[in-house]
Amino acid sequence: MNQSEIETIILDLGGVIINLDIDHAFDRFSQLFGKDIRSDLLHDTDSHRFFLDYELGHIADETFRNHLYAMGEKRIDDRNLDSAWNAMLGDIPEERMDWIRELTRQYKVAILSNTNAIHIRRFDQVFAQANNGKFPSDIFHKTYYSHVIHDRKPNESCFTTVLDDMNADPSKTVFYDDNLDNIATAQSLGIHAVLVEKNKLRKDQLPNGRK
Fold this sequence. Notes:
By secondary structure, the protein is an alpha/beta fold. The protein is 48% helix and 11% strand. It contains 11 helices and 5 strands. The protein has a 5-stranded parallel sheet. Helix 1 packs antiparallel against helix 5.
């Protein structure tokens, strides 16, 4: 794709913008509850559906927390639970943030993320720390979070919502994600999609990038 043709860039959040370590969160849950809830949350059909409902904004934070308490068979302080859930969110390397700020000066840049309210509150804090108090809305042209738009990747409708709202031509749009299913849907819609190795976005993957 010719770089001069690029108008819009869409970035995934976890594993692309901010470093992500899901195991860290489950390790914290094990410490708090004294049991491993990883398999239940990830593989139990009802719990997995419940998690997706939270990502889609269909249930409130309190309902989500209560479900985790039931799985852990223990009631703890909400702040400790949120802290454990947010433990999967790491830092935003300074160099990576510099690249992203550079992109926003040249293109329309948006975030598209499958996420939830508790995570976004923490992401805003980490982002502000990395950007002299500025929040994502101060730097990105648009932010699309699954729990806000009530849709999620890899649904085609999720991508078309973003393209329509940004008035973006898919053939002039580049999408970065660390999930192959999301990449496949984007490509099926004519978007130029780039698979990012989790937590390892490279400068040479970006427009005007060099190794």
